[in-house]
Specification:
By secondary structure, chain A is α/β, with parallel strands linked by helices. Chain A is 35% helix and 28% strand. In chain A, the strands form 2 sheets. Chain A has a 6-stranded mixed beta sheet. A 4-stranded antiparallel beta sheet of chain A has the order 2-1-4-5, with helices on one face. The chains are: A alpha/beta, B alpha+beta.
Chain lengths: 231, 406
């Protein structure tokens, strides 16, 4: 049975006009991402992988082409609609963790659910479940500054998962982590992917991430160079 | 909303140095604004208070035309005025005077003097000259002596027990001359009064000027300036204004009031400049905060925090800073203002002479009127509220990708 497509990127172009010479970051990229994929977008610096991730995440708009998430062409949404769309459908994991420094680990995980106006009991249960899933049930009340880089990134994954998004976008999630933290984080993500069929899309240089991915999309000069499935 | 409030309050204390710098700039804005306003108001209140309480009183009644032509011929019968005032309580507050001029002489020295014939008891309640006796005694009822201002006594080299000769022109051109023993010396805060005033008993003054029982002035003994409008309207309704003039202190001191207006306007301009300078300082700190936290705001937008909520959070942070700064400004300015209220700045040289021209001491006391503190804190707070609009526009336009890239 064919799995459901959660992201359809169709003939997407992105040109930046912030410099004297326009920079063509993406030139006609088309890819489909299915439910439950564990996909890495790879390529050298400046190849356009972060641009593609930003476009899929609704953080930026394509110059041309369409990006359909679920049933919505996100290129047609207004800025405020995009904020709501991201809140409901997309989980982000950033390279620098980007937790809210003044909130505890628990409050960080709970944050997006609060924005979604979920009831307290539901929030508490989901936070406890996710903190346990990322192995930090005993660090709920610690602020980010009291956690290691690996722990912060795990909290960031829990935060991304909290609102039950359609998929998780992770931009270089292991770039600032040591080997052990990277292995732990990838184990945890792979488990969530296997057990709960959560879709993960990574942008990465990290061979350790690439080795764990089941699909590798290679981008170079703004074009898809290779798209291969790993057995 | 609770979450936003929590974020805002915690954010304030996240970067203590930034918070302290911003709060300090607001504190200084309030402090300087309060200092300028309270010195300005305190100085003018002191000036007007000196003139009102040492001499004029808040309200005076004269024969119509007296104020423009202060001659001893413009006198009236005080009993007719008292009878016309319907309000019994008010009638008892009428303090009669004869005010005119005379040449005062002692031995070889002669000087022009302002003569005020007073009812010692009533005047003691009104302008309290009895409390300003520096030597000798206050006048008894029906006393035939005089009280001489210290400065004038010094000029004449006269002292208590000496006899002063007064020469003037009396009612309807009669010669007025008399010898009056000095009962006491009086000190006036107003340098102008201190060098020319002589108090005579009212009956002595009537005799001296030959006014046949008439007087030049009735001062209305009003306790509180707030009562003035009501008292004035009662008096004007009771008296025939074609025969009498009822004047309040503002009408009697137009130069002083005009000078106050000019000075208040220039203080307001200084305050406005101060608000601009401080406003730009605070605005700079807000811009710095906005730039420093652009990445963070980008992240919050990226994970789904709407622009409105983000704006409310930042607005609350700025407003909290404003409240902290304004309260601290009030707290710091209170003891300073109270100190300068108790220990006024004393001017000297040309500045002092300029003040003395208005007949007041060259002192700059600070006013402790609480409304100054509240008003200045409110103005600064409103300024911050207005300044907080700009970051809202910036946040509304903020693109998460650009913010996170920067």
């Amino acid at each position: 049975m064919e799995r459901k497509k959660v992201i359809i990127v169709k003939d997407v172009y992105k040109t930046y006009h912030e410099t004297k010479v326009p920079v063509k970051a993406l030139r006609g990229v088309s890819i489909d991402i299915h439910q439950g994929e564990f996909t890495a977008i790879v390529g050298p610096s400046g190849s356009g992988k972060t641009t593609l991730l930003n476009l899929i995440g609704g953080l930026d708009r394509p110059t041309k082409g369409s990006i359909v998430v679920g049933d919505t062409d996100i290129a047609t949404l207004s800025d405020n609609q995009l904020i709501d769309f991201r809140k409901e459908h997309i989980g982000f994991v950033f390279q620098s963790y980007n937790l809210i420094p003044v909130l505890t680990a628990k409050e960080n995980v709970e944050f997006v659910m609060l924005l979604q106006k979920q009831p307290k009991a539901k929030r508490d249960a989901r936070t406890a479940e996710l903190m346990a899933a990322v192995g930090l049930a005993d660090r709920m009340d610690n602020r980010p500054s009291e956690l290691s880089g690996g722990q912060q990134q795990r909290v960031a994954v829990a935060r991304a998962l909290a609102p039950k998004p359609t998929f998780i976008l992770a931009d270089e999630p292991t770039a600032n982590l040591d080997s052990k933290s990277t292995a732990d984080l990838l184990d945890m993500m792979a488990k969530l992917n296997a057990d709960e069929h959560i879709t993960f899309v990574f942008s990465t240089h990290d061979q350790r991430v690439i080795d764990r991915a089941r699909r590798i999309i290679t981008i170079e000069d703004g074009k898809v160079l290779k798209d291969e499935w790993v057995q | 909303m609770r979450q936003i409030l929590k974020l805002a309050t915690r954010n304030i204390w996240r970067n203590r140095r930034r918070t302290l710098i911003t709060a300090a700039s607001i504190l200084f804005a309030v402090l300087f604004a309060v200092a300028i306003s309270s010195i300005s108001k305190g100085t003018w209140d002191h000036m007007i208070d000196s003139v009102v309480h040492y001499h004029f009183g808040y309200i005076q009644i004269h024969k119509k035309g007296y104020w423009d032509d202060k001659t001893i011929d413009n006198v009236f019968d005080p009993t007719s005025v008292a009878a016309l005032v319907n309000d019994q309580a008010l009638a008892s507050q009428l303090v009669p005077r004869i005010e005119s001029f005379a040449l005062s002489s002692f031995e070889q020295a002669t000087k022009g003097a302002l003569i005020i014939g007073i009812d010692p008891e009533k005047e003691a309640h009104l302008t309290r000259p009895d409390t300003r006796i520096t030597e000798g005694d206050y006048l008894e009822p029906k006393d035939d002596g005089v009280l001489v201002a210290e400065g004038l006594a010094t000029y004449l080299s006269a002292s208590v027990g000496d006899t002063l000769v007064l020469i003037s022109q009396g009612y309807h051109g009669i010669n007025a001359a008399g010898k009056f023993p000095i009962r006491g010396l009086v000190h006036f805060g107003s340098p102008d009064l201190n060098k020319q005033l002589i108090y005579l008993g009212l009956e002595q003054a009537k005799w001296f000027y030959g006014t046949e029982g008439q007087i030049t002035t009735i001062v209305v003994d009003v306790e509180d300036a707030d009562e003035l409008p009501a008292v004035i309207s009662t008096l004007r309704a009771s008296l025939d204004t074609s025969l009498y003039e009822v004047m309040d202190y503002k009408e009697m001191m137009p130069d002083l009031m005009q000078a106050r207006e000019v000075d208040t306007a220039s203080s307001d301009i200084i305050l406005l400049v101060l608000y601009f300078i401080i406003g730009f300082g605070i605005f700079g700190t807000i811009l710095m905060m906005l730039k420093e936290r652009e990445y963070e705001f980008g992240i919050l937008k990226a994970i789904g925090m709407g622009t409105v909520k983000l704006n409310i959070m930042l607005w609350l942070e700025i407003i909290f800073l404003g409240i902290i700064g304004c309260l601290a400004g009030i707290l710091v300015s209170l003891p300073i203002v109270f100190y300068f209220h108790q220990n006024p700045i004393e001017l000297s040289g040309a500045m002092a002479e300029a003040y003395e021209k208005f007949g007041v001491q060259a002192l700059l006391p600070a006013s402790t009127d609480i409304s100054i503190f509240l008003k200045q804190a409110l103005v600064v707070f409103l300024m911050i509220t207005v300044l907080s609009i700009y970051p809202m526009f910036k946040l509304a336009k903020l693109k998460p990708v650009e913010a996170m890239r920067d």
